[in-house]
Write a structure and sequence with these properties.
This protein is mainly alpha-helical. It has 15 helices and three strands. Strands 1-2-3 form a three-stranded antiparallel β-sheet, with helices on one face. A hairpin with a 4-residue loop joins strand 1 and strand 2.
């Protein structure tokens, strides 16, 4: 501790300004982030004043946040081309020192609860930093190591529950982005869905747990029967998908009743958070309902859900535009509207509805963590062109013309995204026809 105090005492005035900037950012309760960060905020601030690893990480992160905010650039790694600014290089240097301090901390961590939590809080800073740098693989590597710490800690209280929930949220973000990764923080036991939620946070945490369970099932058993064993889905798996849907419906009922009480005395920020949460509910419901079936035409049953997502996204964006939404650039737990809009733009085949989703993507002002609207808008626009080619207006898109999954590989330096398109042009029993295209944004 004496060494720590000495190090902090020698902190420059510049470092102190970056620390103050970070604390000001965390003090803002913007609707685009909601409660995803607010619960672990006091823990972060406390540790920042006690541990040099977090302190250095905060300084590095703040330097990059200011650089990104000032230039508003979305060039290579999210920043302007070389030569790099002094602030950019300063942030990289501080980050290297933060990683060195974190490595020393992990060596001494053992089963110590305090040091475990400090390491996980520092992990949040590192993931956040890598997201700002657009090095998502490095961010995923940090996340995987931290998730091992969370899982190894077990249910004995070695990790604060708010920190656990923060990592569960990042676990979900990574699973949605990577596409082949399954979330690892899903509880095995299904807790009863309350009749009414005591707080908004309780409703939010409950839905995220259900959503993670849906994604976990979809990435494992769902993928096997949707891609490899068409039409051979065991009845017990069909029953399980119905259980997932029923639990989501119970959540919707409880949330609707609970939120009706909050809305009477609510604020625009409360309404924005509710809109974002309901968007996640609809995405989870559609995903659960289609998780074991290969036919893309099944998505046609959910036109009502797609329309509702767009309506909620419009209302959510209206609140975001009036708030300082960019003050927390890259916060790694944010569940925003860009992925849901991309989901609608690629899974809804109503031409007018999916075009509206593409238009909303094209006008989205800021990225949601790893989701960048201009890239996804370009991919969605091309997918719509491929599927609707040769069809008359409002003519239904037949199954053999529909795309199944759209893997992406993004090259930020050339501002191109390599996309793999896949269809079954000879029907569901036929072979895959796939090809790659490079799109610019």
């Amino acid at each position: 501790m004496a060494l720590l105090q000495a190090l902090l005492w020698e902190e420059s005035e510049q470092d102190a300004r970056y620390v103050q900037y970070f604390m000001e950012c965390l003090s803002l309760d913007v609707p685009s982030c909601g409660s995803e960060y607010s619960n672990w905020r006091p823990l972060m601030i406390q540790a920042m004043h006690q541990e040099i690893a977090i302190r250095r990480g905060v300084v590095a992160l703040s330097a990059l946040m200011q650089e990104r905010m000032e230039h508003g650039s979305v060039g290579t790694h999210g920043f302007d081309e070389p030569p790099r600014s002094r602030r950019y290089l300063f942030g990289l240097k501080k980050y290297g020192r933060a990683l060195a301090s974190l490595q020393e901390l992990v060596k001494d961590m053992g089963n110590d609860r305090y040091l475990t939590q400090v390491a996980l809080l520092c992990g949040i800073i590192c993931i956040w930093f890598e997201i700002l740098m657009r090095d998502y693989l490095a961010g995923l590597s940090h996340l995987e190591m931290c998730l091992k710490i969370v899982l190894n800690a077990g249910p004995l209280g070695n990790v604060d529950s708010d920190i656990q929930r923060a990592y569960a949220r990042m676990d979900m973000q990574a699973s949605l982005y990577v596409g082949i990764r399954s979330p690892v923080t899903v509880p095995e036991e299904m807790s009863p869905i309350p009749y009414v939620f005591d707080s908004f946070n309780q409703a939010e945490n409950c839905l995220m747990e259900e959503y993670a369970r849906v994604v976990h099932f979809c990435r494992n058993a769902g993928n096997f029967y949707r891609i490899r064993q068409l039409g051979c889905v065991p009845l017990e798996l069909v029953a399980y998908t119905q259980t997932l849907q029923a639990r989501l419906e119970l959540w919707k009922s409880a949330f609707g009743y609970s939120y009706s009480c909050q809305k009477a005395q609510g604020s625009p920020q409360t309404s924005a958070r509710a809109s974002l949460l309901l968007i996640q509910y609809y995405i989870a419901l559609v995903t659960a309902s289609t998780s074991v079936y290969a036919e893309e035409t099944l998505y046609d049953r959910f036109l009502y859900a797609f329309k509702r997502i767009l309506s909620l996204a419009r209302s959510s964006n209206a609140c975001q535009e009036s708030a300082a939404a960019t003050s927390l650039v890259g916060v790694p737990m944010k569940m925003g509207v860009i992925y849901p809009l991309y989901f609608v733009a690629t899974k809804c085949r109503d031409s007018a509805v999916r075009q509206e989703a593409i238009d909303l993507l094209s006008s989205a002002p800021y990225p949601d963590v790893v989701w960048e609207a201009p890239i996804l808008a370009a991919v969605s626009r091309r997918a719509k062109e491929i599927e609707e080619l040769g069809l008359d207006d409002n003519q239904p898109i037949p199954e053999f013309k529909r795309l199944h999954g759209i893997p992406l590989a993004i090259d930020y330096e050339s501002r191109q995204v390599r996309v793999e398109f896949r269809i079954r042009s000879n029907g569901m029993d036929g072979e895959w026809d796939d090809w790659e295209e490079c799109l610019s944004w």
